[in-house]
Amino acid sequence: MTARTQTGSKVRKGVGESVPRPDGIPKVTGHFAYASDLYAQDMLWGAARRAPVAHAGVTHLDVAPALAMAGVHAVLTYDDLPAKRFQGQIITDQPVLADGTIRYWGEVVAIVAADDPTTAAEAAQAIEVAYEPLDPLTDVDEALARDEVLRKAVSYRGDREVHGEVVVEATYETATQDQAPLGNEAGIAVPDGAGGVDVYGPTQWTHVDHEQLVDCLGLRPEEVRVHPTGLGGAFGAREDLSLQTHLCLLALRTGRPVRMVFGREESFAAHVKRHAARMYYRHEADRAGNLIRVDAKLLLDGGAYSMTSPAVVANAVGFAVGPYRCPNVFVDGYALRTNNPPSGAMRGFGAVQTGFAVESQMDRVAAELGMDPLEFRLKNAIGPGDVLATTGQLITEPLPTREVIESVRAMPLPDDETSTDARELPGGTGLTTPRSAVVRGVGYAVGFKNLAFSEGFDDYAEARITLTPVGLDIHTAAIEVGQGMVTVLEQIARSVTGIEDVRVIFDDTSQIGSAGSTSASRQTQMSGGAVLKAAEKLRDELFEYFGADALSSEGMWRGSQLVASLPEACLDRDFSAHVRHRHQGSEEPDENGQGNLHVDFAVSAHRAVVDVDPVLGLVRVVKIDTAQDVGFALNPMSVIGQIEGGTMQGIGLAVMEELIVDHGIVRNPNFTDYLLPTFLDAPPIEAVLIEQPSSWGPFGAKGFAELPTISSTPAVVAAIRNATGKALTRVPVRPEDIAL
Amino acid sequence: MEIVRPQNLAGVFDALELSPDALLLAGGTDSMVLVNAGALRPDNVISLRNVKELKIWDGGFIGAGVTYARLEHSDVAALAELSRTVGSPQIRAVGTLGGNLGTASPAGDALPFLAAVDAAVELVSGSGSRVMAWDEFLTGPKKNALEPGELILGAHLPDVVPERTAFAKIGVRQAMVISIASVCVTRDRAGITTVAMGAVGPTVLRARGAEEMISGEAAPSEAALDEFQRLVSEEARPITDHRSTEEYRRMAVGVLARRALERCLA
């Protein structure tokens, strides 16, 4: 298949064009309905009472003072839970409401429904709770020593007796990063009057929410409908339930719609984080620059409950060696249970943490060998026909590791800065740093990750396309979190059918089967693949029914003759095509973590140029360039948007984003102190798109949107090392890490 | 919740008589954070936004209601520089000098300037006014000498502000960030130098030993600047918190003071 072949007739706004998003104008003009805009007649307001401690026994809990307040309709605790009392998408270990023991800061002890948000908040605070403090477990090594293991994942391959001549050992740490989506958690649950409930909340996968809600509410599957809502970002934070169960419980108890809208501080408490990690690495190479052996022990802080930790640790192990050839690999990965806030999914999903460590190691080994760090990477780079060092699986799809490295190396470097504008100096408007105090550094890194679900998971997505008198309706349960899937699905359907007027209808769980999660860089290939197949099926059915050989927005054509317009076709009968699309599948790991665990991979490379004030330890990222493996850019503008956003999220982790968790207590749950990069921190970003078409993505497209986050963090840190000579084994790099 | 919006001080005091516990709200950039966090639930609010006496800025006097957006245009270098570092443009459009004094956070961006120029703070109440030195007014972290029924009228600068002033502030982002450490340095034609430090003590602090040492130097040598830097660091009283460490702040404030002084000497 060649990348730009179109199977339909020429159509405007098809694949390969930078089509603007249909929800773009409504979003920037304020007309788009986000979850926080939801409203229902006669609704109540919900509020949660959260524990201010990381670990404690609940010695006293009395809801009577809250219930006695005027305007309060319900107060629920663990004892009120009607059915299954624990939730979780992999292991159901999280109590829906605290079960008598507090295991993390912000855990929900009780929930309230009241006439208005103020009364609800006051009632939540009126609940009497007393705690007996327990010693929180907050260190991952300590958790491992106590065998608090949520999952151990391994990769054992090769010969334990083999060693290289050059040995580099180091320990790396990544701090807790928050997805910090701009839209806080908000939602509404509406009882249907017949014992069932409709819930609208922040989600990346309605069907997996549905399974958990059904169990926890004690209802039949058809009695619970999970609806998508307008989301202001996700980045993994919406993969686990946040407020949906609570909304449903309150709505069913009161018989009225219940709404919750979290503020920023509560949002920090309500969603999972990127795992903090401590990673012990040992790389061995021969003098010729061949990687011989990698040993690693990866400790990921899962926090109090399992959430997606079992999958995250498998990914951390899977990408622990990077896209490099290495015959002997011994990696032990642990997701550990602590009393820190629960960790879960965040863009990069385990490959961010090991990506930082392994790329740092590659630079160190190259330095030991006296080799150029890119030459060392190129010498060991894998591509089609090679095997993945951690799992032994053969790479069969395009994997342009060499191309991304060479492309980014070939991009021009920026000129030396001479500007004395404070905004173009480290320290910015704080006027900390004269130009004479600045040292420049350049660093490179490569990112590597799987696409779609791994480890034998039955990964599928459904789509249904119906012909309407004006065009096509695409029905899907896939979640648009802001990433632009809505545009891509429309473009695919247009290019297949030649029909321009296409819209995406986001169905609830009762209307269509699962699309899988909007995560793992998978929806372009999975839901995009489903839409491709459904569009082809619909087109072929129309061709056959009308004896047509071409389609367009006007209708069905036979040669130059219009045999039926779209309205005429719709009067004839209903035309619809429904598809459940699977990828080629993957295998579960054997006891050594070996097998065809992953379906496909993508690579990326970044080069960061930084200006550093080494005395004060302040960093300004001057420029960051990247090459990305995208298969085929279905929507180049959208691709660039994902690259820019993902790169900034990686820069954030490199130099500022850290949720400070002190003995289990979050010290900075606000945007005053959880620092996200602003526009003044955003350097120019230039991207080269490597388009080697995937055999299974629509029109050759690959998922890629996690990759920019994976390689930008280590590239920035490598550049700071280049400027300062400091080892810098932890991200984010703090001023004191450089200056002291 | 009742809100009154007086046009002048007399109106403020009338309103205060009726509700002595009312929240005095100017820019709201600190107060509204507390309100949103549920930590402050005022029954009565007196908006100071339209009080004309508070908006006076006539060189030697800066009314408490003067916003940082206005102060960014000051011809006193340090005052303009510090104002540019306060929050975002939206925050600077409403945030006022009086807010920094009222909140009395050691990280308040304007406070090192007021301390470096030995500003005096004027407080007014229905029964009169009193003027006190900045270090009498700022009594501790988030503590000041304001009495119930009083409000901050503004700050009085000395008749002559030193010709050279410089401000510098460290935060881990190019703009819109709370101070980890800040300094304001002033130097007059006679070489008299003042140094005030923010976010490295319970209140804004003057580095008196460093001032005394460098004020004698007409054209400070590298060795003198080194010593000045050392003394500033020594006089800081920083703590470790979620924003930075004691050790870093102590080192950084000395470097900032030296560089600010170098700007004054240039």
What features would you describe in this structure?
The complex is a heterodimer of chains A (740) and B (266). By secondary structure, chain A is of the alpha+beta class. Chain A has three domains: 24-31 and 460-582, Aldehyde oxidase/xanthine dehydrogenase, molybdopterin binding domain (Aldehyde Oxidoreductase, domain 4, 2-Layer Sandwich); 36-135 and 185-261, Alpha-Beta Complex (Aldehyde Oxidoreductase, domain 3), CATH 3.90.1170.50; 277-454 and 590-739, Aldehyde Oxidoreductase, domain 4 (2-Layer Sandwich), CATH 3.30.365.10. Chain A is 26% helix and 26% strand. In chain A, the strands form eight sheets. In chain A, strands 3-7-1-14-11-12-13 form a seven-stranded mixed beta sheet, with helices on both faces. A six-stranded mixed beta sheet of chain A has the order 9-17-16-15-10-31. In chain A, strands 18-26-27-30 form a four-stranded mixed beta sheet. In chain A, strand 20 (472-476), helix 12 (485-497) and strand 21 (502-506) form a beta-alpha-beta unit. Chain A is globular. With 266 residues, chain B is of the alpha+beta class. Among the domains of chain B are: 1-52, Uridine Diphospho-n-acetylenolpyruvylglucosamine Reductase, domain 2; 164-265, 2-Layer Sandwich (Enolase-like, domain 1). In chain B, the strands form four sheets. Chain B has a four-stranded antiparallel beta sheet. In chain B, strands 10-11-12-13 form a four-stranded antiparallel beta sheet. A three-stranded parallel beta sheet of chain B has the order 1-3-2, covered by helices on one side. In chain B, helix 9 runs antiparallel to helix 10 and helix 10 packs across helix 11. The mean pLDDT of chain B is 96. Chain A binds chain B through residues 121, 263, 265, 423, 427-434, 437, 615-618, 620, 655-656, 660, 662, 667-668, 672-673, 675, 677-678, 680-681, 734-736, 739-740, and chain B through 33, 36-38, 81, 84-85, 166-178, 180, 182, 242-245, 247-248, 251-252, 255-256, 259, 262.
